[in-house]
From TrEMBL:
Natural source organism: Nocardiopsis ansamitocini
Record-level Gene Ontology MF annotations: acyltransferase activity, transferring groups other than amino-acyl groups
Alphabetic keyword roster: Acyltransferase, Transferase
Protein's name in the database: N-acetyltransferase domain-containing protein
Source superkingdom: Bacteria
Length: 168
């Protein structure tokens, strides 16, 4: 018989405001992550292209996963078009990866998207994030072929979308 450790009961998912210290921590952690994977210039450009104000209610949301008093994961959504939410900023603290937190964040974001009246989710991820691409496929996201290339034909990003179940 294999004994499993007890489930954590102090983990919660909560909505955050733009001025929430947890939101600032998420952005800071993403800047470090994107800098490591891409470059400082690319990371700064990505974060500046989608400011936190894009994720404000009533058409957006910023969600944080906390364990005790620590932010260990998070993500956000914003309006992409009338019926489509765009998911951005999905992140898990490196010490907490491989525990299903990104899946939990995605589930919470999809639920919030339905609550906000969206019927689809669009998202994109960079070529240096293969684990994100694998997760999105497992969660039922379909690759949008032919999208994500620059004028020279170089791959800039991978795009995915998914219809939301339970959507009106």
């Amino acid at each position: 018989m294999v004994l499993q450790p007890p489930a954590r009961t102090d983990r919660s998912v909560r909505a955050a405001t733009l001025t929430d210290p947890g939101a600032a921590l998420l952005v800071e952690a993403l800047l470090e992550e994107y800098t490591r994977r891409y470059s400082a210039e690319g990371a700064a450009h990505e974060l500046a292209s989608y400011p936190l104000t894009d994720f404000a209610p009533p058409r957006g949301a910023l969600l944080l996963v906390e364990e005790g008093a620590s932010v260990i994961a998070g993500g956000a959504l914003r309006r992409y078009d009338e019926g489509t939410a765009e998911v951005k900023r999905v992140w898990t603290h490196p010490a907490h990866r491989r525990r299903g937190l990104a899946r939990q964040v995605m589930g919470a974001l999809e639920t919030e998207a339905v609550r906000l009246g969206y019927t689809r989710v669009f998202l994109s991820t960079g070529p240096a994030q293969p684990e994100a691409m694998a997760l999105y496929r497992v969660l039922g996201y379909r690759a949008r072929d032919g999208e994500g290339f620059d004028e020279s034909g170089r791959r800039r990003y991978f795009a995915f979308d998914k219809p939301l179940s339970g959507a009106p």
